[in-house]
C-alpha cells in the first residue's frame, strides 16, 4: 500500500460491433479490498432480516373460553376444562399448548425484533469485499455464473449501454458480450417454488443472472427489466444482498465505464477517503502479503531461524542387542580389550599349566628315581642280607629320601 | 528438458544444515570420535585389569604378612553394595516404601548399586525385610552392566549398545566406555553418583532355583537382609 500505487488496467468494451478494447481504465482501489467472507456472511444474514414483515398469531387465539380446572378427585387430568354441557366441547381441555384448540406455546408477537442494526462501517466493509470478489473469476465461477466466454472480468462496457431503451437491444448486447449464457441458465432453471410460497404470490424461483451497474439511468433500467435473472443497479446504491446473494460472494457484474470509474470516488482508497461516504477509507487487510509459505521460506526469515533440533534417531528406536557373554562381536564393541584379555588369560593358564606340569613331572621323576633306587638297593640288600645287617642300609635309604 | 529446481529449494539446500556436505562432515567427525573412544576403551580396560589384579594381590600379601606376624589384617570395609528388592509392592508401610522409592527399587527383583556410608546403611536398615544386599565383586558388577545395563537417556531406558552412548553422557566425568563405568561403580570413585544415575535400575529375573523364604533374614536361613559376598552367587542366578 504505497502512496504511488500502480493500478492494473481494465479494458472497456463496446456494446456492439467487434469485441475488442476501445479504451483502458485503471482498476479502482475497491477491487483490492480484503475479501472477507466472514464479514459478508455476518452483514448479509443481518441485512436480509431487514425486509421482513411482522407476523404474529392472534392475541385471543385459544383464549376465548372460560375454562376452569376441575381440580383433583375426579379421575381426570387437572388441565382447565370447558364449562357447561350439552355440547361436545364441554369438558374438553382448553388453554394449554398441549390441548386441542388451545393457545400455542409462547404466542408470536408483532413486537418481535424483525430488523437488525448493523454498524455502518461493517456494512461498508462487506460491500467493499463483495465488490472486490466480483473481479475474482474463480469466485464468480464458483457462485455458478457462466463466465467462460467473457472477454474479461471485471467486465466494463462503454457508457452507451446506459442509453439503451429496448429490451431487444439489451438482449443483443448480452449475446454480443458473451453474457447471455448466464441468462440462458436462468431461463432454463426457472422452477415452481417448493413449499407454500407458491400460493403466496411467490410462485416461481429464478437463479441470479448478471447484474448491470450504471452511473446514469438513461433508459437502461427499463431495457434490462424484463430479462429473466438480470438486475440493474446504480453504482451509488450497491446492495450487498444483490452483490453477494445468499452471502455467497462473486456476483457476475457488468459495469458501465462511468460507473466503474465512480467506484474510486464512492469507496475511496487507503490514502484518499470516499467522497460520498464521509470519513470512510477502504478497509485494510490483516495481512498485506498472504503467501505465508513464501514468507517462511524467504531469506529474511530463514537466516534468523535457529537450526532444526536434530531428532535423536540414535536413541529413537528400541535398540536390540545380543548378550555380550554369548555374542563375541557385541562384547568386543563394548570392550575392545576383551579379546586380548581372553588371550592373556589363556596364556596365563597355559603358563600355569606348564609350570604345574613341570613340578608334577619333577616330583614324579624323583619318586620314580627313589623307587628305582630302592628296587636296586633291595636287590643289593637281598644279596647282602646273607652278609650283613640291614639296619645301616635302612638308615642310608631314609637319608636318601630326605 | 532439464529439471527446473525452484529458487526456494536451491536456497534451502544451501542454507540447510542437513545438506550432503554437512552430513558428510558430521559423519567423518563422528567416525573419528568413535575410533578415539574405542582406542581409549582398550587402553583403559588394560589398565583396569592390571589394577584389579594388583588389588587382589596386595590384599593377599597383607593378609599373609599379618599372619606371619601373628596378628590379623582387617580388610577395609566395603564401599559398594548391590541391593535387590525381593518383596512386591503390596502392603509396604510408608517409611520403607519411601526409602525403596528413593533407592529406585520400585519393583520386585529390581537391583541398584549403592555406596555404603552411615546414611545409606541406616536406610538399608529400614528396608532390610524387603531387600537382600551384599558386596559385589568385579565380575558381578561387570556382568550386570554388560548384560543388563540400561542407560537413562532422554528420560528413556535404552540398552547400552555402544561406548558412544556412555561417552555422550559421561564424558565430562572422564567415563567414556563400559570398563570405565564398571571401574567407577566397583571402586566407588569420585563420580560414582553420576555413573550410577546414568544406569537405570537393573531389572533382574527371579532366581533360578528359587528362594528359601523371603520372610526370614539371610542369617536365619531366609533370604532378606545383608548377605555380604553371597550376593554374587545370587546375582548369577538372577541375571
From TrEMBL, chain A:
Signal peptide (residue range): none
Keywords: Ribonucleoprotein, Ribosomal protein
Residue ranges of the region described as Disordered: 371-402
SUPFAM superfamilies (UniProt xref): Ribosomal protein L4 (SSF52166)
Domain of life, per lineage: Eukaryota
Biased composition (Acidic residues): 374-402
Domain Large ribosomal subunit protein uL4 C-terminal residues, every copy: 278-354
Family: Belongs to the universal ribosomal protein uL4 family.
Protein name per the record: 60S ribosomal protein L4
UniProtKB/TrEMBL annotation, chain B:
Residue ranges constituting the Large ribosomal subunit protein uL30 N-terminal eukaryotes domain according to the UniProt record: 5-76
InterPro entries hit by this protein: Ribo_uL30_ferredoxin-like_sf, Ribosomal_uL30, Ribosomal_uL30_CS, Ribosomal_uL30_euk, Ribosomal_uL30_euk_arc, Ribosomal_uL30_ferredoxin-like, Ribosomal_uL30_N_euk
Gene3D superfamilies in alphabetical order: 1.10.15.30, Ribosomal protein L30, ferredoxin-like fold domain (3.30.1390.20)
GO cellular component: cytosolic large ribosomal subunit
Keywords: Coiled coil, Ribonucleoprotein, Ribosomal protein
Domain Large ribosomal subunit protein uL30-like ferredoxin-like fold: 81-131
Biased composition (Basic and acidic residues): 18-28
Gene Ontology terms describing biological process: maturation of LSU-rRNA from tricistronic rRNA transcript (SSU-rRNA, 5.8S rRNA, LSU-rRNA)
Residue runs in coiled coils: 31-69
One GO molecular-function entry: structural constituent of ribosome
Disordered, as annotated region: 1-28
Family, similarity comment: Belongs to the universal ribosomal protein uL30 family.
Name of this chain's protein: 60S ribosomal protein L7
